[in-house]
Amino acid sequence: MKTLLARLFGKKKTMTDITIIGNGNMARGIATRAVAAGKKVEILGQDGAKAQTLAGELGADVTHGTAASAPQGSIVILAVPFDAAKSVVTAYGNQLAGKTIVDITNPVNFDTFDSLVVEPGSSAAEEIAALAPAGASVVKAFNTTFAGTLVAGESGGQPLDVFIAATTPPPLRQWATLSAPPVCGRWWSDRSSAPGSWKASSSSS
Predict the structure, then answer these.
(1) What pLDDT does 7 receive?
(2) How far is CA 57 from CA 23, 63, 64, 104, in A?
(3) pLDDT at 176
(4) CB count, 10 Å around CB of 112?
(5) What is the model's pLDDT at position 123?
(6) pTM reported for the whole predicted model
(7) Strand pairing partners for 61?
(8) Which residues of the chain have pLDDT under 50?
(9) N or C: which end of the chain has fewer CB within 10 A?
């Protein structure tokens, strides 16, 4: 699997297309970082007018459309709440085959704010992966990062870290080409095995 953050933010001759589903604060934050790296970004939202407004604010030839449009990016970021993310994956179905789906959700019970809405022993990313078509991969990222710090690209004057979880370890190469700061993460093969861990730095390869 290609390094997700390199695909999102890495400077390359051929730009990686990224589709962001949603037009709220997290969509703005993630898109800001991708646009800053020269990536071609597509914003899709339930409200086409809001998606158009956000795309216009981001500039840099950011395209827009409604959630009824097929996502064009090879990376599809679900910048919507958990229930909406599940609905989006179900609705797109095979249109997501072969794509990397990024789940940024925290499945909090918003009625009580004291529990999660996923069953014990499960997770939001696993439930989304169960709905995804064959050939799609699901990655967890950005759920521990605030929208404001994504826009700024730093926190308290320190470089911004983004944590990633996936079922396979991303290859650690060409980190010096990242415009995003170093990334820490974990990967696991299944719940019966201990997770591996990796930390990237500008000198990793």
Answers:
(1) 59
(2) 11, 11, 12, 22
(3) 27
(4) 7
(5) 83
(6) 0.76
(7) none
(8) 1, 12-16, 170-189, 192-205
(9) C
Kindly write down the DSSP assignment for every residue of 58-101, as one continuous string. Answer: H-TT-EEEETTSPP-SSEEEE-S-HHHHHHHHHHHGGGGTTPEE
- Beta strand 196-199 with 184-187 is antiparallel
* Amino acid code (one letter) for 126: E
- 179-184 long-range contacts, Cβ below 8 Å, gap at least 24? 179/9, 179/10, 179/11, 179/33, 179/36, 179/37, 180/5, 180/8, 180/9, 180/33, 180/37, 180/153, 181/153, 181/154, 183/5
Using alpha carbons only, what angle is made at residue 100 by residues 161 and 47, rounded to the nearest 5 degrees?
90
* Cα 139 → chain centroid: 7
3-state secondary structure (DSSP) of residue 19: strand
Query: Which pair of structure tokens corresponds to residue 177?
Result: 């080409």
Amino acid at 103: D
